[in-house]
Prior knowledge:
With 152 residues, this protein is α+β, with helices and mostly antiparallel strands. 38% of the residues lie in helices and 16% in strands.
Amino acid sequence: MASTEAPRWTAYANERLAxxxxxxxxxxxxxxxxxxAQECALSAQEIEDRLREGERRVGRATVYRVLDELVELHLLxxxxxxxxxxxxxxxxxxxxxxxxxxxxxxxxxxxxxxxDELERVLRRIARREGVAxxxxxxxxxxxxxxxxxxxx
Length: 152
Ligand SMILES: [Zn+2]
Ligand SMILES: [Zn+2]
């Protein structure tokens, strides 16, 4: 389940925000930097907690407002894993970095994975069904290596 290093998302996000007329804000920059340092999705609560641990103080209202803005601009996607908590994940330019998740039903851990062949298969299915696919969600469920009973 190795995943390759993702490209930097901050520059892409800032460019999009500037293009949409957003001014550079301290709170927004802190949220963007934090998310760009993650391999995978974080909940709003986790984002708030991690910002509080760091040097940069960002109020809860600002965190939520920034997350809404970034989702609206399709710079973040909401990852729903069925526990009622939305997690936020960077969205990269079309055709660049993109991954899916394995969710552990015991500990709730989210493990990212990517697979070019899976992407090709999904595109082939979309063509076959004659649909214009502009996104997809694939979530694997089960038990992670820590929670799975030892083999043998
Ligand atoms: Zn992820
Ligand atoms: Zn687990």
